[in-house]
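Changelog note: in this version the structure field was regenerated for every chain. One regenerated record is shown below for reference.
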Amino acid sequence: MGENIDLICPTRQGQQRATNWLDGQFAHERAAGNARRAEEATLTHIARILEDHLSHRWTEMIAPSTA
């Protein structure tokens, strides 16, 4: 079922099986996980800013400042 393919520039990675996950998949998953956490943190931060802004505007509507 397997076949041999001559490599132009043989490397250590080229000698591994095609199904070997040491070709950057782990690094990709780690980077993708970091990106998801960063996005979640950013969205949480934006939600807090909006919440603060809206609560401040609500307070201003109830008791306007005399400035």
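Spot check on this record: DSSP finds one helix and no strands in the chain. The mean pLDDT is 72.
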